Amino acid sequence: MKAEAIKLDGASAGSVDLDDAIFGLEPRADILHRVVRWQRARTQQGTHSTLGRSEVSYSTKKIYRQKGTGGARHGSKGAPIFRHGGTYKGPTPRSHEHDLTKKFRKLGLKHALSAKVKAGELVVLDSIETEGKTSVLAKQVANLGWKRALVIDAAAINEGFAQAARNIANLDVLPSMGANVYDILRSDTLVLTKAAVEALEARLK
């Protein structure tokens, strides 16, 4: 399929061919959901922890005699039934990460790109060469109407653009190898340079 390319000032920069096998799929929510869950699970710290019965700071002495009290039998103040006692089967530090095949992750990225094309939220830039001024880039972004944009460049990000974009809210920049389903879907506008299109097509073929 053909897509129109523009420059940062909004001028036309010709057109670019997009591979239908990558940008022309019918997006499937189930595939995107699985990949996003896998991605978010990998970033979850899993440091949640509670103290169990054997870890709370209490004496291990039997709290009162077994018989004759008229109450239930208890042997430890740290039992979960008591206030400040240990937590029964509480969370412990662990990894939330689970496996997802490379083939499926690649498929998820294709569907994420196709979803942006279908929604009309994909913009192709000729290049992101800029003088490195935040004020200039912010004005260009405002004129283009990008509110929450993700810009993906080639393997190496243009240093001037990265420096200028650093202090602009809701403008994220990633190299082509950093392209991922979660960041693509959460952006309102996906901006790919021509070099990024070539790099992604080479990566996903």
From TrEMBL:
GO biological process: translation
Statement: the UniProt record of this protein carries the keyword Ribosomal protein: yes
Cross-referenced SUPFAM superfamilies: Ribosomal protein L4
GO molecular function list: rRNA binding; structural constituent of ribosome
Transmembrane segments: none
Domain of life assignment: Bacteria
UniProt region (Disordered), positions on chain: 65-97
One Pfam family linked to the record: Ribosomal_L4
Gene3D superfamilies in the record: 3.40.1370.10
GO CC annotation: ribonucleoprotein complex; ribosome
Keywords: Ribonucleoprotein, Ribosomal protein, RNA-binding, rRNA-binding
Role, per record: One of the primary rRNA binding proteins, this protein initially binds near the 5'-end of the 23S rRNA. It is important during the early stages of 50S assembly. It makes multiple contacts with different domains of the 23S rRNA in the assembled 50S subunit and ribosome. Forms part of the polypeptide exit tunnel.
Family to which this protein belongs: Belongs to the universal ribosomal protein uL4 family.
Subunit organization: Part of the 50S ribosomal subunit.
Protein name in the entry: Large ribosomal subunit protein uL4
